[in-house]
Amino acid sequence: MTGFVDLFTESNSALHRMDPRVKIASVIFLSLLALIISELGYLLVLAGVMVLLLLIGRASFSKTMFAFSYVSRVMLLIVVLWPIFDPSGTPVLLEFGPIKITGPGILAGLATAVRVFCLAAVWYVLMFTTSQRDLVRALVKLGLRFDYGLSLAISLRFLPTFGATVESIKDAQRARGLELDRGGVAKRARNYLAVLVPTTITALKTADTLALALQSRAYGARADRTYLRELSMRAIDYVALVVVVAAFALPFAAKYLLSMPL
Amino acid sequence: MIPRNRALPSEEKIISVRNLKFVYEGGVEALRGINLDIRSGEFLAIVGGNGSGKTTLAKNFNGLLRPTGGTVRVADKPASELTVAQLSRIIGYAFQNPDHQLFCASVEEEVRFGPVNLGYPEDEVKAKVEHAIEAMDIHSVRALPPHSLRLSERRRVSIASVIAMDPRVIILDEPTTGLDAGETKALMAKVSQLNREGRTVVLITHDMRLVAEHASRVVVMSDGRIVLDSDPRGAFADLDLLRNCSLVPPPVMLLAHSLAKYGVPRDIISPQELVMRIVLGKGDVR
Predict the structure, then answer these.
(1) How far apart (Å, rounded) are the C-alpha atoms in residues B61 and B37?
(2) Where exactly are the structural domains of chain A?
């Protein structure tokens, strides 16, 4: 069975206790920050902050390794390919034919790789420290319609179940002599029908049962919903929000208003 | 005692498992050293509580799972050298949930799918499909879409689609879950008929009554090991062992155990047998 990994890890760290709305806002601001900074040195500082956040959020080592195993491949590609396609600047370090490797090209490649790391890390911190339930709750509080929020929550909740069903269906068809990865494109597409049709039907049946289960528990009985768990901003949440906004706004102003090289 | 109309198992080992171990990716040890020979023509029941390793074992027979230790031989060849598709010519596997298998527009197409995959010529496909439809008694629904049928019919279609591949062994994973008593009886009668025709049947189940009435041999699994391997009579004699494996023997067996102090033997496995022992074997009953 190909495992579906829920990145969220139960814990009681400061980041886990932070209001999910603040976390979502922070992730957006820090992502923008990673995009506006282009100097390698500052990006490395930001990357250091990300590592610190991962530590504060007590990210599990194995999940972090799993998450960054994909990101690191992208980073490696960028480091290798960027200098080849970016011949700008001097000094020229190497030259064969049309390919020119320059010092600034290598630095730009490194900077972009670190930027990718920062962008990935900040979203991973959110996923590591925020349960799906809290994420959806925050989105609803930020104005998403409750129905959509619930649909989103249910979809996320059923992803692993669904993955297991698909594996079971594949096994069932392989036991009937189906070889999914044999033959040309058309043959393979037809092969996958044998997986797609039972998957769709099973999913529709599940959805139907689920709708009935929701109705039988009086979903939608009153228009003005009350919530068992209210979100409330604590002082520390406001502080965190101010810090993050400042961390974004100051470099932004420095770069675009004062034209400082960042 | 009760005449049993079933093919005698031959000496040929159709499936032979040595020191089989299986560990799932997450590190769960599902099988911890299984040794088992299944002879051609047997009606073998694999019983045990949820999570005891029944399905994992069966999936190792036909290559859906590959051993992490030990060996599986099928029809005297190492299973590791055969693909799932090649193994499916010898071992048919009907999944617990028929909805995971059915996808065609009509029952007949569904039953054809397997033999066509295996590349049989058209006349053989036709013959095999007819035999399978006959064996599972699904003539009346052969033109209907399988998903429109009731559960007992969908189950029969899914078993028919396996029989149509003409395998020597048929693995049935909890085939009676969700069926009522009448549907269960009808289905098991058809499965017994397949066994009488010489097919090896491997039945995975919790239902000890099915085992008592149909199986020629019972393997009890617990925690990834085989804890008992005997005929049903022997398997039911050890109530403590069954209880430890979350299994309940058939009521008639419990009754026989309660009547043991009046001279009723404990190894009764059917109501008819109990009646015969009490009525005819008066000498035993005080």
Answers:
(1) 11
(2) 14-130+232-256, 145-216
Contact between chains at A201 and B114 (C-beta distance less than 8 A): no
Is the predicted ipTM greater than 0.95, yes or no? no
* Omega of the bond leading into A87 within 30 degrees of 0 (cis): no
Q: Which residues of B touch A165 (CB under 8 A)?
A: 100
pTM given for the model: 0.75
Of B24, B147, B162, the CB nearest to A201: B147
Mean pLDDT within B241-259: 85
pLDDT band at residue A253, thresholds of 50, 70 and 90?
Answer: very high
- Residue A20 in contact with residue A130, Cβ under 8 Å? yes
d(CA A198, CA A25) in angstroms, rounded, equals 40
- Give the one of B24, B64, B102 whose C-beta lies nearest to A198's C-beta: B102
B101 with A169: Cβ contact below 8 A: yes
With a CB cutoff of 8 Å and minimum separation 6, the contacts of A65 are none
In this structure, is the dihedral angle defined by the CA atoms of residues B6, B10, B15 and B19, taken in order, positive or negative? positive
pLDDT at B215: 93
Distance CA B47, CA B247 (A): 8
As a whole number of angstroms, the distance between CA B267 and CA A183 comes to 56
